[in-house]
Amino acid sequence: MVFWQVFLLFSVCSAAFLLWPMFQRWKAYKKALRLDQRSDLREAVHADREQELEKTHVLGDIDESELKSLKRDLAATSVVDSTHIASHASRAITLGKHSRTLLIAVSVLLPLIAFGLYHAYGAKPDWEIRSLATSLSNDPENGIEDRKKLIAKIHNRLKSTPENGHLWYLLGSTATAVGDYEEAVRAYRELNKLFPDTPMIIGELAQALFLRAGSTMTPEVRKNTQLALSLNSELPTALGLAGIDAYQSGDYPQAIQYWQRAVRKLDPNSPSSQVLSQGIARAQIAQKATSRPTKNTQGTDVKDNLSLSVNVSLGENVEGVEGNETLYVYARAWQGPKMPLSTRKLSAGSLPTTVLLDKSTSMVEGLDITSASQLEVIARISKTGDPSPQSGDWMASYGPVILTEARQKVSLEISELVP
């Protein structure tokens, strides 16, 4: 809407610029016509006065010398009047009909030609992209479809302006918002080519790589994170990732240090600051838990006796579950690899039920629920019996769970449909 308002305003201004001189000349032409009419009238009056003087002389009311004197006075008066009229106006240069038509046509066609050229070669697509991006930022509740439209517009624009860094950054952030991490990685890679060694871009690339890997700290993520920090040691995005790396490695003091530095650079009311603050709290709890003795009074390892009790129930909104489906209850590392560390396989007909997860239910020897300091617990009803989540499954999840908190029990109500 703003674009059309500006376009109409400039169109009116250009038309006024072209037509105003024509109106001024037309006004002057009208004035000249009026002055001509006055001159003609004065000449007619002068002629009548001379005729009257001649008649008076013929009748004998005035003699020859008086006639000549009165004619001189009349001529002098006529000269004064003519001089007075000429001093107030001059003959205007008139415009013909064809000239006026041409000017009006140019005034109408010029905005149309300008719009056509702007549409073909101007920045109208950038204007539309900016307007849509602004509306999405002002209204975060807008759905994925609107953001996908924005991505499509950015793609079309980048075909003609492939070196537009602003568009590549907008593409990366929008793709991240809709969960298209592959596209986000591509966008940040292109941006990194245009602006190499830019800490913010490298940090965003590391984050996109992290999300694409399923929130896993891969060697490439770690490399880009450390590179961003070497260029800017206080970059919040890189500090957050470095904290996650330290946290998943069990180095809780280092994770707390990274996250605290990141929080100091953020708005305390921002979502990122709140998430990092929660991470700091979890790391502090985990640090206290790992500092406890690992041996009990009998000299055995405390971890050997750790277990997790999970209460599983079926939500009221669940439909299509007949009871013969497969129920999986398992635990995996929180914000780590997706492979289950401990799992139980039951029938959905056993719900509600309580499941105990411990070292005896581990999937791989040497990897069990004690292998991670924090866990995510998941219950899923599979109609096909497939261990991997499938569309149409029902599930519930909870995390993080600190296994060393012996009194903690987990309750899961299955109510979420896998898309």
Summary, kept brief:
With 419 residues, the chain is of the alpha+beta class.
How would the blueprint of this fold be written?
Blueprint: H1 2-59, H2 64-88, H3 97-121, H4 124-138, H5 144-160, H6 165-177, H7 181-194, H8 199-212, H9 219-231, H10 236-248, H11 252-264, H12 271-290, E1 307-314, E2 326-333, E3 342-347, E4 353-358, E5 374-382, E6 394-402, E7 410-414, E8 416-417
Parallel strand pairs: 1-7
Antiparallel strand pairs: 1-4, 2-3, 2-5, 5-6, 6-8
Helix pairs in contact: 1-2, 1-3, 4-5, 5-6, 6-7, 7-8, 8-9, 9-10, 10-11, 11-12
Question: What level of helicity do the residues show?
Answer: 55-70%
Low-confidence runs of at least 5 consecutive residues: 89-94, 296-302
Tell me the number of strands.
8
Element-level helix/strand string: HHHHHHHHHHHHEEEEEEEE
**CATH architecture classification of the largest domain:** Alpha Horseshoe
Distance between the termini: 37 Å
Class by SSE composition: alpha+beta
The spatial strand order of the largest sheet comes to: 3-2-5-6-8
By DSSP (H or I, 4+ residues per run), the number of helices equals 12
What is the fourth-level CATH superfamily of the largest domain? Tetratricopeptide repeat domain
Instruction: Describe the main β-sheet briefly.
Output: 5 strands, antiparallel
Give the mean pLDDT.
76
Question: Can you tell me the overall shape?
Answer: elongated
In angstroms, what is the radius of gyration? 44 Å
CATH class categorisation of the largest domain? Mainly Alpha
Enter the CATH topology name of the largest domain.
Answer: Serine Threonine Protein Phosphatase 5, Tetratricopeptide repeat
Number of domains: 3
- Roughly what fraction of the amino acids lie in strands? 5-15%
